[in-house]
Amino acid sequence: MNLNLTGHHVEITPAMRDYVTAKMSKIKRHFDNVIDINVTLSVEKLKQNAEANVRVRGKNIFVETNSANMYASIDNLADKLDRKILKHKEKNVDHRNNSTLKTQESEQPD
User: Which of 57, 64, 68, 73 meets the CB 3.0–4.6 Å disulfide criterion with 50?
Assistant: First the structure.
């Protein structure tokens, strides 16, 4: 898993980098097929924005959040991303299970 961290109008401190890395490792525990994660942290007036684009095989998952605090934005981002990754994983498992059931039903003689 490659993690790219960029900042727009904000300097990425080592503490921020460590915090984002720790939060994104949670994603890796739930789903092994993550190719790379691009995280962008930005500041616009009073809003602290965090957005992530996650590449998995066959799909790109995009999530963005904003808050008054950058660390709160990163927390919300990790939670939203975790929910979307688990939803994607469940869809893949359901699709795989349904396709095997259909092939088994079609092979059985009536």
Answer: 73
Domain ranges, ordered by start, for the chain: 2-104
| Radius of gyration of the chain measured on its C-alpha atoms | 18
The residues, ordered by sequence, that sit 6+ positions from 40 with a Cβ below 8 Å of its Cβ are: 5, 6, 7, 8, 49, 50, 51, 52
Q: Give the SS3 label for residue 2.
A: strand
CA distance 4 to 60: 15
CATH architecture of 2-104: 2-Layer Sandwich (3.30)
Write down the pTM of the prediction. 0.78
Nearest to 27 by CA among 53, 48, 8, 59: 53
Report the length, in residues, of the chain.
110
For the chain, percent of residues with pLDDT exceeding 70: 83
What contacts 16, CB < 8 A, 6 or more positions away?
A: 41, 70, 74
